[in-house]
Amino acid sequence: MGRAMELREIEIFLTLAEELHFGRTAERLHVTPSRVSHVIKKQERRIGSPLFERTSRTVRLTVLGEQLRDELLPAHQRIRKALERATAQGRATEGELHIGYTTPWCAELLLRAGDAFRAQYPGWSVRAREIPFTDPYGSLQRGEVHVQIAEFPVLEPGIVTGPVLFREPKALMLPADHPLARASAVSLEDLADVPMIRLELDTIRSKAAVDTHFPQRTPMGRSIPRGPSCSSWYEIPVMVAAGFGASIVAARAAEYHARPGITFVPISDAPTLDYGVLLPAAGAGPLVEPFVDLLRTQAAGALLHAREDRLRR
C-alpha cells in the first residue's frame, strides 16, 4: 500500500468501501465529499489501479478494492481497539476492581494477580468476593463484580467466557471407611455404587453446573444414587465425613478440605474441571483486560512451577 498511507486515509477508504457513497462517507467522517474523493484518487495513483468503479449513480469496489478492504479491515479494527483501550486506561488513574471467585485455589490466583495489578496501577485496588454455588452468576449479571473466575462450561445470558486459566483433574471425595476409599483410582461407572451428596438443585439455576458436579447417571446409563441435599457446599465435606455419601470435586480440593473421615480418590476417566474467566457481555470497564492478562500470566506461572515440582520429585 505504501508507507506514506496514513491511518486517516485508511479510515476514509474503509468507510467508503462500506457506504459506497461519497456523501454518506463524508458525513460519517465529518469531512467534505471532495476530501473523500481526493484521498481515494491519491490512493489509486499510489497503487496504480482503480479501487472503485464510479458512475453517476453507483459506486462499487473493484476486485483489487475488495482485496484491499478484506486485508485492511481486521488490522484497522485491532488498531482502533488498542487505541480505545489505551485511552481508557490513561484516563482511569484510580478506581476499584471487583472480582468474584468460586474456590480457594481461584482466590489464590486472583490475589496473586491483584498484587501484580496494584504494582502496575498504584491508584487502583482489587476487592475479591466469594461467589455462592447457589447463585453462580447473579453477581456478574447484576454488575456487582467486573470479572469472575469460575468453573466452565457456562452458557448464561449477559455473560461471555474469556480464556481458560487452568484445568483440574477430578476426584471423588469419599468417607474414609467406604470400600472405594482404598482404591488408587475410581471410574465414572463406580459412581453408581455410592450415594452422591448434592446441593439443593432447585437453588442452582445453571443446568451446566448441575450436569458437571451432580450427574444423575454414569456414562453407561446406570443410575447414580442420590444422597442427602445441602444448602451450602461447605456442608458437603461434613456429610461425607459422617458417611452419608460422596461428592465429585477438583483433585486440588484435597489440599484445602482434608479432614478426618474423608478420603480423596482420583477419577481416572473423568474430563478435567476447567476454570476460566467470565465477563459481562455489556463490557466490564477500562482495566479489566489488563487484569485478565495478569490472571493468565499468573496461571501459566503456577502451572510451570507445578511441573517443575513434579520433576524434582
From TrEMBL:
Lineage: Bacteria, Bacillati, Actinomycetota, Actinomycetes, Kitasatosporales
Keyword terms: DNA-binding, Transcription, Transcription regulation
Nucleotide-binding in keyword set: no
Keyword hit for NADP: no
Superkingdom, taxonomy of origin: Bacteria
Signal peptide: none
Pfam family, one: HTH_1
Name of the protein this chain belongs to: LysR family transcriptional regulator
Coiled coil: none
Family: Belongs to the LysR transcriptional regulatory family.
Entries under Gene3D superfamilies matching the protein: Periplasmic binding protein-like II, Winged helix-like DNA-binding domain superfamily/Winged helix DNA-binding domain
Organism: Streptomyces sindenensis
Bilayer-spanning residue ranges: none
UniProt cross-references to InterPro entries, sorted A to Z: LysR_HTH_N (IPR000847), LysR_subst-bd (IPR005119), WH-like_DNA-bd_sf (IPR036388), WH_DNA-bd_sf (IPR036390)
HTH lysR-type domain ranges (all copies): 5-62
